[in-house]
């Protein structure tokens, strides 16, 4: 697919332009995909509520824009790299510096508009599902190989779309039809087993320790599953929800956030969701008025980003633990519209925030409170 990318070369300066070499002299590890993100300055103090120090940067994918919607934006778990996936059948990697954001590599999967893409837990692969296909693809970045997974014994689904990767890298979880959830081995890509909900399953995520699965349904119920036995540990009605639309779990295991079709986002204490039959939200966030389609916690659990892809500018950043919305985001002014948000993510230490929209843009913001990437 165009030769060995510069970040995979044994010679870190092979194939770099003069401008890239200058950048490389400043940080020899930036072009290595697996280099760890480092502490740039002193450790940040706790984030204050009210006004967020935020700066709009050059779009992360400015070197490889698309005319079709982006379906996914995600930061690499360890490096200063961002991945985008699009309905134009492409997956692209960018080195994020907030200034130039040079493209590292793009791949194209023929006749495969991408519904979702996600890094593997070790950051060496990208898993991708299509809009209307029953197969999924694995892109091995270390060898530059695209692997189609075409036959999964025992799995009878017409489409494979929404999925999640367990944080420990052991499992893939696919949302099926008729309330089914299918768990696969990430290594062998074989079906381990399936779980059944009483209504159409809409979203499912792993717990931070990979021991549990949280899923929500079209009737507003939330299910808690044990990964080892695939048994339902708990089931409760999301407070006031008639249709569950999105889920997010904080990386520190403190909160579970449940979004609904009405736009209400309820935030619960994690342990209450596991143990109580009728947990009450710590906070109900009502700043969205259309379907809450995506959510993501910042890695340090100081911000919860919520969004609806139904309308423009429907993105809110919520301060934790006050659960108040930052009043200065998004900026309401001409030329700064956030078109319909399809996907969102924070960089590994919360220094950057990105939004993928329906215009093919990966909007990039620098959160100036944080000194780390």
Task: Describe the structure in your own words.
WD repeats lie at residues 206-235. It holds the Pfam family WD40. Belongs to the WD repeat UTP18 family. With 373 residues, the chain is mainly β. The protein has a single domain, classed as YVTN repeat-like/Quinoprotein amine dehydrogenase (Methylamine Dehydrogenase, Chain H), CATH 2.130.10.10. Helix content is 4%, strand content 40%. It contains two helices and 28 strands. It has helices at residues 18-26, 270-275, and strands at residues 54-57, 70-75, 81-86, 90-95, 103-108, 114-119, 125-130, 136-140, 145-149, 163-165, 171-175, 180-185, 191-196, 201-206, 212-217, 221-226, 232-237, 244-249, 255-260, 265-269, 283-285, 294-297, 303-307, 315-319, 324-325, 341-346, 352-357, 362-367. The strands form seven sheets. The protein has a four-stranded antiparallel sheet with strand order 1-28-27-26, with no helix packed on it. It has a four-stranded antiparallel sheet with strand order 2-3-4-5, with no helix packed on it. Strands 6-7-8-9 form a four-stranded antiparallel sheet, with no helix packed on it. A hairpin with a 5-residue loop joins strand 10 and strand 11 (171-175). The radius of gyration is 20 Å and the shape is globular. Residues 10-31 and 38-43 have low confidence and may be disordered.
């Amino acid at each position: 697919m165009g030769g060995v990318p510069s970040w995979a070369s044994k010679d870190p300066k092979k194939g770099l332009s003069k401008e890239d070499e200058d950048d490389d002299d400043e940080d020899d590890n930036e072009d290595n995909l697996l280099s760890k993100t480092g502490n740039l300055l002193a450790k940040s103090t706790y984030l204050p509520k009210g006004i967020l120090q935020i700066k709009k940067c050059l779009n992360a994918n400015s070197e490889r824009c698309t005319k079709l919607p982006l379906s996914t934006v995600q930061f690499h778990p360890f490096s200063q790299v961002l991945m985008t996936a699009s309905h134009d059948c492409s997956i692209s990697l960018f080195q994020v510096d907030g200034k130039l954001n040079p493209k590292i590599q793009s791949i194209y999967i023929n006749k495969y508009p991408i519904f979702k893409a996600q890094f593997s837990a070790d950051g060496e692969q990208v898993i991708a599902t299509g809009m209307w296909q029953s197969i999924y693809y694995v892109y091995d970045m270390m060898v530059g190989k695209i692997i189609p997974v075409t036959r999964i014994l025992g799995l009878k689904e017409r489409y494979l779309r929404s999925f999640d990767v367990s944080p420990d890298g052991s499992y893939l979880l696919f949302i099926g039809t008729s309330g089914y959830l299918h768990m696969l081995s990430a290594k062998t890509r074989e079906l381990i087993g399936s779980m059944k909900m009483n209504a159409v399953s809409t979203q499912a995520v792993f717990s931070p320790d990979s021991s549990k699965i949280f899923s929500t349904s079209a009737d507003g119920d939330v299910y808690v599953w044990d990964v080892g036995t695939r048994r339902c540990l708990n089931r409760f009605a999301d407070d006031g929800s008639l249709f569950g639309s999105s889920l997010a779990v904080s990386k520190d295991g403190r909160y579970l956030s449940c979004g609904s079709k009405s736009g209400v986002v309820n935030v619960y204490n994690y342990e209450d969701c596991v143990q109580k039959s009728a947990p009450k939200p710590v906070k109900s966030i009502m700043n969205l008025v259309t379907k809450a389609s995506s959510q993501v916690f910042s890695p340090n659990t100081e911000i919860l980003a919520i969004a609806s892809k139904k309308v423009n500018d429907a993105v809110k950043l919520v301060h934790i633990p006050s659960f108040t919305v930052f009043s200065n985001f998004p900026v309401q002014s001409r030329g700064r519209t956030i078109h319909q948000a399809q996907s969102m993510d924070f960089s590994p230490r919360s220094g950057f925030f990105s939004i993928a929209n329906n215009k093919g843009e990966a909007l990039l913001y620098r959160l100036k409170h944080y000194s780390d990437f």
